[in-house]
Specification:
alpha/beta, Rossmann fold, two-stranded antiparallel sheet, 20% strand, binds adenosine-5'-triphosphate, nucleotide-binding, transport, ABC transporter ATP-binding protein, ABC_transporter-like_CS, membrane
Length: 240
């Protein structure tokens, strides 16, 4: 990015054992921030994972602690879905070792959670957009990392599979894992514990998703083109 500062964050702490959704208008810097947190982009300053600077982590230990799902990731289309999900276990495997029983167990569990176990023997390139996304989600879940960073994890997912994703995230958080996801779908984002609201490369607001200040910040960054209503105990976002 030729040295240009895209996201300017003075200090940011994302709470452990919680789910934070990163939201904001197009171009606000959500993907850039997530990539910087994942150590995929250079940062001026320091990013810490579980209280330890990223660069101090041995690469493999970091890959076990931090799972990453990018937006529209190019995948190896010839790989079978099962082999793609197994890539999530690489940080757990000794060099050139065959996957262990624990690896197979983790992959099957992840693929069943995202409901892609039935087509485990199909090549990635022959899956629909949503089917493919579920395999990539399984890969991220199979890492069994402390921290999961996911950019647009719901891309191409139909409503029932979005609900499944929500359940998995809830389970992970209940088990003490930390989830950070960029979400465009604000109704889904408002299911998160916390919202990090970005605007023009800066943090406009960070707070609990049920907090009225958070809703006010959302309305602000979207130029008051949204309304937020509570319907049957859930937040519903309506464009206007
Ligand atoms: N590789 C790049 N080189 C230069 N500028 C970039 C690059 N990637 C993104 N940008 C710019 O950085 C800004 C933030 O982009 P980013 O993708 O982080 O936004 P975003 O909030 O995720 O957007 P969206 O909601 O559209 O996905 C945008 O102005 C974008 O044009």
């Amino acid at each position: 990015m030729s040295g240009r500062i895209i996201v300017d964050v003075e200090a940011l702490a994302l709470p452990a054992g919680r789910w934070t959704a990163v939201v904001g208008p197009n171009g606000a810097g959500k993907t850039t921030l997530l990539k910087a947190l994942a150590h995929l982009l250079p940062v001026q300053g320091s990013v810490q994972l579980c209280g330890r600077p990223m660069e101090d982590w041995p690469a493999k230990a970091r890959a076990r602690a931090l799972a990453w799902l990018g937006q529209g990731e190019p995948g190896a289309d010839d790989l079978l879905a099962h082999d793609v999900a197994m890539l999530g276990r690489l940080p757990h495997q000794p060099w050139l070792a065959a996957p262990s029983a624990a690896d197979h167990f983790a992959v099957e569990r992840a693929m069943r959670k995202t409901q892609c176990w039935d087509w485990r023997d199909r090549p990635l390139g022959r899956l629909s957009g949503g089917e493919r996304q579920r395999v990539l989600l399984a890969r991220a879940f199979a890492v069994e990392a402390e921290v999961l960073l996911m950019d647009e994890p719901l891309a191409n997912l139909d409503a029932p599979h979005q609900a499944d994703w929500l359940l998995v995230v809830r389970e992970l958080v209940a088990a003490g894992r930390t989830v950070v996801s960029v979400l465009h779908e604000l109704g889904m984002a408002l299911h998160a514990d916390e919202l990090l609201v970005l605007q023009r490369g800066r943090i406009a607001h960070q707070g609990a998703s049920a907090n009225p200040d958070t809703h006010a910040a959302l309305r602000d960054v979207f130029d008051h083109r949204i309304e937020i209503h509570e319907v049957a105990g859930q937040w519903v976002v309506v464009p206007r």
